[in-house]
Structure prediction request, 413 residues.
Amino acid sequence: MLLSRSPQGGLQVVELTATTVILIFVTFFAYLGSRRDVRKELLFFAGLLLGTGLSLVDCKPLVPIANRLVRLLTFAIKGGAMADDPLPIWEAVKKRPPLVNPADPERLLWFNTAVFAALAVAFYLLGNRLWRGDAPDILAMAMGRLQGKKSKRSLNQMTSALLTQLTSTVVGGLNGFLVAMFFIPRYLAATQTLVVIPGTAAWDVLTRNLRYAIVVVFLVFIVRGWQQAKRR
Amino acid sequence: MVPIEIVFFIVIAIFGLVGLVRGFLRELGVTLPLIVLLWAYSALGERLLRLVEGGMAKVAGYSLPATSGDLIRCSFFLVTLIFVTFIAYQGETLAFGGSNPPGLQGWLLALLIGLVNGYLIAGTAWYYLAHYNYPVQNLGLVYLPLTPLAQTIASYALPPDVLGPLLPFLVFFLIILRIIR
Prediction:
């Protein structure tokens, strides 16, 4: 991380290395993950994975659908659905520029971000709705064990809870990696922002670490299955 | 002639189905020896071959012919891979004990681990074929040049490339899981 004074004036220029920014994302989401149930985090991960997959093709399969939907909504708002002669209204709606023009990179980026954010929020909230409980509180369990009986069962519960919380922390970190993978090359790699990261460096760091992220995903699933199998 | 990447994906899919039938814990018992084998290959494989070749040259005065040398070296890796795969699937000793995760989750996990095993087996075979410049093309099993997709997979996505520096940790991790079970 570098802090330097701009030669043009008194403005402080903060220059962060790509690794630092990715680590900030990963740490923040890992912390969030440690506070949530592992199932919620896995669902959130699925949503982010879907968003990342769509962003790889710039959400182009969704562009015509979004444009048609907006056109239909505009038609309905303009009173086309209730009008005796809807044709003039439809013609007027058709003449309006589409919501997302695939040839316009700025609009496409905006649409891409909206889809990614919508998927992330939807899956995050869906997880909260499906599973009400939070991650087990390891500290409280440890305190209870110190104060109360030291039975073998409580030790087993604590080990299992610790493993679950570790897994949700790791999945949270992976979620942070996916969010970083989306946002850093698109937004923070620009040349005129206050926080400056060389774009190619960011992309290099992300792709270099992608294989580790994939391996960690598989390890998370292995641990999850292993834990589930052990419980029976 | 079917492109090599299609064969690769078909093999992975078949192993995925096998995983689905066998269950998560048995498949995890296959992953462990495959990862250990990959580690052994990366740490010892080439060295062992050089040692054997050097020994043969010194003792018997025989060195591998230039034409079929790569085919023999590649066969060493492929045969040991098939041998270890056979042992891993045939034996029960390495399978993780207990009962499989219940319900749909168990099925999906079994499928996932099956696919991973398929990737490890098919990917390792492809890696050593590529490493020795496809010696089986003389037998008419592979036709070059590869498609762009196959070239990308062969360059970046095969197990020894992807897992290279992580192999010792993976071996350690899986052994720990096996022990504390």
Notes: Residues 27 and 108 of chain B are 12 Å apart (CA to CA). The mean pLDDT of chain B is 85. Chain B touches chain A through 23 residues (CB under 8 Å). DSSP finds seven helices and no strands in chain B.
